[in-house]
Amino acid sequence: MNSCLYVGLFTTGIVLCSRHPEVKWAQRIDKVYITVQLPDAKDAKVNLEPDGVFTFSGSAGTNLYELKLDLNDKVNVEASKISVGVRSIFCIVEKAEAKWWKKLVRDDQRAPHFVKVDWDKWVDEDDDGADVNLDGMDFSNFGGMGGMGGMGDMAGLGGLGGMGGMGMDDFEDDSDEEEVSKPQAAGHAAEAEKTESAEAKTESAQSS
């Protein structure tokens, strides 16, 4: 169920609606894969507690998104990792005890409607073995850091204060700018070398 907050005076204002982002999950005997699907998220905040409480909040467009999940069992925050992408946040949550969970949330709770099985990463308990291919992903630890607010790169989220002021696309923009600036700099250097060479030839011709 969504709730909306109306901000403004009289007929002019902004409507901010709180919604649940889609969550996909899969597991291995020692870890859980949690993907929060929210393209172009802004001000994303993620928190993971040792007792298994997983929370997320962020915005996209005029909508606010938030969720709280009581995971099936306790987790190892320090060993857990997170990767922030332009379309989603991918978390590897290490279980405190290596065992197969019957479902993502606690046994006495019903799974929320926005939580789906990630069939691309899912394996049956009898087939538990190979981990998910993580090539090309940049991970940081959940634990051991004070927070992500005001930091330029990803940090741990154990007890964090969130990612205030940073959107997921900020990371993508930084890398894109670096990739674009490198060929431009190389082009300017090549033009300078050509100019110097031409000037040297002119001077040589005039002196002869």
Automatic annotation (TrEMBL):
The keyword Zinc-finger does not apply. The gene is LOC100856929. GO terms for molecular function: Hsp90 protein binding; protein-folding chaperone binding. Transmembrane segments: none annotated. This is Co-chaperone protein p23. One of its GO terms (biological process) is protein folding. Residues 169-179 have a biased composition (Acidic residues). It is found in: Cytoplasm; Nucleus. Pfam families: CS. It comes from Zea mays. Belongs to the p23/wos2 family. Acts as a co-chaperone for HSP90. SUPFAM superfamilies: HSP20-like chaperones.
